[in-house]
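Forwarding these from the shared drive since the link keeps breaking.
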Amino acid sequence: MITGPIRGCLSLTLYFLNTVFWCLLLFIVAAAKAMVPLESWRRKCSRILNVIAENWIWVNNLNRRLTSNTRWVVEGIENLERSQWHLVLANHQSWVDILVMQRVFYRKIPLLKFFLKKELFWLPLLGQAWWALDFPFINRYTSRHLQKNPHLKGKDLESIRKACAKFKTNPVSVMNFVEGTRFTTEKHSRQKSPYAHLLKPKAGGIAYVLGEMGDHIHRLLDVTIVYHGGARSFWAFLRGNIREVKVRVRSLPVSSELLGDYLNDGLFRKNLQLWLNNLWNEKDRCIEEMLTS
């Protein structure tokens, strides 16, 4: 029988080899896309890049089946459409969340794309792959930093606008962890979060995406992820120490109450945050139910 550390090393090696192989193809197509300034050519290259990324995910999923006996309990993905644009919201506990959603949504919806801190561009292979796939890199400025450097105000929003313009060319699933950071008991305590299993959500990110892409987004997907025994590290995931993963997906309409001027309309800003707080209340109850069922 393969022990945990050996299984982890084997799985990590397979992830690495898979990433190197597909990244080489990805970079070749990305270079071809950059060299020809024709919009039709670039759209075609973007579709090919997305197919390469999906093949990378397919092999990663095969890796998990070969090296792990994790039990998956997934609900709510039966009637999803690959030809539609989606905005995906989820609770955030670990880097494993991204691999979980890539597995759950594989060939169910368009490729998941999410906003990344600019520093992550320098992550070997993956950072450059995300750039080639048009993942948006943004600077996240604190209020204190903006007070000292007022000329930077609005720069992050401009980055979001440019990313959303690219997202309109081909169907995409825009991923947003609205808590802004991974859940820990320390952060939960420091925030004085009103939720038992979640941090406080922030409405700004989804407001900006819907403000730029409201006429493109077909559905909003509310994703709840629960790990048996609590959130685990990526190494624990590789070792096969996560015995069970539960995922529940709810498909919600993009109603008129979610569309408005978040920057200048104070009432809309307040109502959108209230809507998100209510969604998080439901998610908190959902997590409690999933933990006890």
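-- next protein --
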Amino acid sequence: MFKDNQIFAAPMAGITDKPFRQIIRKYSPNASMVTEMISCHSLVGQHKNCLRNFDDYYDEGNIGAQIFGAKPELMAEAAKILEGQGAKWIDINMGCPVPKVATKAGAGAWLMRDHLLAGRIISAVVSAVNIPVSVKTRLGWDESTKNWVELIRVAGDSGAKFATLHGRTRSQGYSGHSVLEQKPSGLIPIIGNGDIQTHEDLLKIVSLGYDGVMVGRGLFGKPWILGQLTDNIQTPNDIKSVVLEHLGLVLEYYGPKSGIPLFRKHAAWYSAGIKNSAEFRIKVNQITDQNELKSVICEFFNCFGNS
């Protein structure tokens, strides 16, 4: 079975921001985490409207910072900045399927189609920093081009220490099921990713020869799931306190104007499976005042949190 430092929290845009990582860390002090992806252009340009550009990682434990981009020199510069901010390793996104990244920017999943550029980016980043470098990718661009083995081989030859493989193609997006293939011998360590939520899912990844697992959407509304997979912790009895603490961190980080709309999805996920959660979600989506939001959260989870 994997150790807790082989269980990763996945990078998820708009989800695994600093407030959510702080909540995850409470239940998984030794787990590995990856930031939501950071644009090398935004980071190097120090765009002030993007708060994640200025995160301090020194107090975040074993955390990798994920960057995306298509220019080796900019990616290298971004990696150096993140190393200076306390990242323990740099992860290069080679799997994001959204058009503005994968087609318009020629980054993310596009690098599955351009292994020469992928190798140049990895080599530039490896040369720029003194911390490990990894890549995160998918099975391939589509069903007819599943070339992940070749890309991970390029990554290893270019200096990457490990890779993460999501068991879907770019064309699948997040639809259908994640299907990982047996890990071949002779490759750098690979972390298996996709649809992992239970111990049974974990055991399947072990049986396929992978070197760790990365949990993504399984974290939605369950920031304690990494601890459940490694340390057999139980779901907290007082979910209300978790939700309120998470909300407090979001408000502190973003402020109420931006923070409340951003938190609505988390409130919905925390309520999943609880009686009257549909009504709760409708109510939360109409709230703009932080005190009203706290009141609605307290009322809902006090009444139904243990149902």
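The chain has a mean pLDDT of 93. The two ends are 32 Å apart (CA to CA).

- D.
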